[in-house]
Amino acid sequence: MSKKGKVYIVGAGCGDFELLTLKGKRCISEADCIIYDRLVNKRILGFAGKGTEFIYLGKENTEGGLIQEEINNKILEKALEEKIVVRLKGGDPFVFGRGGEEIEKLSEKNIPFEIVPGITSAIAVPEYAGIPVTHRGLSKSFHVFTGMTAKENSFHDFKKIAELEGTLVFLMGVKNLGLITGELIKHGKDKNTPAAVIEKGTTGKQRVITDSLEKISETAEKEKAVSPAVIVIGDVVKKREKFNWFEKKELFGKNILVTRDTEQGENFCREIEKLGGNSELLSFLRIEDKMHNFNYENLKNYQALLFNSPNGVKFFFEHIPDMRVLGNIKIGAVGAKTKEELEKFKIKPDVMPEKYLTAELAEEILKITEENDRILVITSDISPCDDEEWSRKYNRKFEKFIGYNTNFNLKSKTDVEKILKDVEYITFLSSSAVKSFVSSLENDISCVKRLKVISIGPSTTKTLKNFKINIFSEALDYTADGVIDILRKE
């Protein structure tokens, strides 16, 4: 008898990746294989473990019977390979998600499965638009319908739907909006009933179009509304004026390109999205851990240890054999984020300079060290760290160790130009990112001229100016938070 894996049918929620449930996150982290569709926020895939296989089987509409059969077969194939499979679906698996068809296929082969509910766009999207699907005195119920139908099926019985007193919610119905509104009015629904079309809901690109039931189709067409969108019909739409909250967030409506390495870039994107902005991550750098080359036994020879970045801290402690090797070593750090990374390991730096510069840290460590003390600096291959000059100047023995390399992660010019068309701001948090960015564009910076370029600090600004890229603004304190502050004030 052949062995079998297990399948988790997981609802990924909609738009905002933080709408993923804790159980869904746990399943993703344990998966050997993830099969996902186009409505899944790609940031969610970052919760997967190393070595996870990713299979994209998206479809532009849900009428595609052929591709659904392909999905069913692929899930079954991977489960029969004895893998833990996550079928990751936008929204909830059973709200027009065809999760039932996938389970039927699994049941034929007795493949074990679990269903993990997801937050459906039928509720979440209206809520992000400030529209409650029920409200005392306005609506005691809500009814969810597909806005499209498989070709072999007839469409809805609009006579019965028009008689419903609750809120009407249609998913995937932008193309059929005129048909839906016309049929409802034809069968007795008041033409003045408030209606809304919510495009790209729960994301920084959310757009809400409102009008009467009679006029909403014409207005949506004029505004060029596109899917994914949720249609809401009912008096609850009136509450939007008072309940609208998401679009009042500080960065809402701002489209921002993040150019950092993948891990730090993901974290930066999350901060942008917490404030309602829309972030696009295009990592122009790849960080390579080199701390495995370090002999931790040599730490006994040093009186102080300096870190000038969070990456240095992270890689240093990933390889440390025993925390006690630090002994009585004094520790210094540059920047709030480096300090935060140290605190994850229950370590508070003894010194931190006011300015976020390694040279300032080298001077600061003099306060708690003595002449001829040996001071180790964990840095990158490109960070400015003149250990020889400091040794001569301060009568200490500074030595640097390259704890990680910062490598260019070049992109195709076409891909970069495509993304730049959809953003308003570009953020650069290092000179290396600038150099990799310009190299990817083959030194043609013409597509950057209309964009607002934000620099983390003087060194990055100097590099941008060397490439004749105009600076919109430079952070007052040289941190990612300083870049966020610029975006907030814009």
Give a written overview of the molecule.
There is one protein chain. The chain has 490 residues and is of the alpha/beta class. The protein is 31% helix and 21% strand. It contains 17 helices and 20 strands. The chain has helices spanning 22-30, 65-79, 99-108, 121-128, 158-163, 177-186, 216-222, 240-243, 262-274, 310-319, 336-343, 358-364, 387-394, 413-420, 431-440, 458-466, 480-489; strands at residues 6-11, 33-36, 53-56, 84-89, 113-116, 142-146, 167-171, 194-199, 207-212, 229-233, 255-258, 278-281, 285-289, 304-307, 330-333, 374-380, 397-408, 425-428, 452-455, 473-474. A five-stranded parallel β-sheet has the order 3-2-4-1-5, with helices on both faces. A five-stranded mixed β-sheet has the order 6-7-10-8-9, sandwiched between helices. α10 (310-319) packs parallel to α11 and α15 (431-440) packs parallel to α16 (458-466). The radius of gyration is 27 Å and the shape is elongated. 42% of the residues are buried. The mean pLDDT is 94.
> What do the pLDDT scores average to?
94
Strand order of the largest sheet: 3-2-4-1-5
> What ranges have pLDDT less than 50 throughout 5 or more consecutive residues?
none
Treating each run of at least 4 consecutive H or I residues as one helix, how many helices?
A: 17
Summarize this entry quickly:
The chain has 490 residues and is α/β, with parallel strands linked by helices. The protein has helices at residues 22-30, 65-79, 99-108, 121-128, 158-163, 177-186, 216-222, 240-243, 262-274, 310-319, 336-343, 358-364, 387-394, 413-420, 431-440, 458-466, 480-489; strands at 6-11, 33-36, 53-56, 84-89, 113-116, 142-146, 167-171, 194-199, 207-212, 229-233, 255-258, 278-281, 285-289, 304-307, 330-333, 374-380, 397-408, 425-428, 452-455, 473-474.
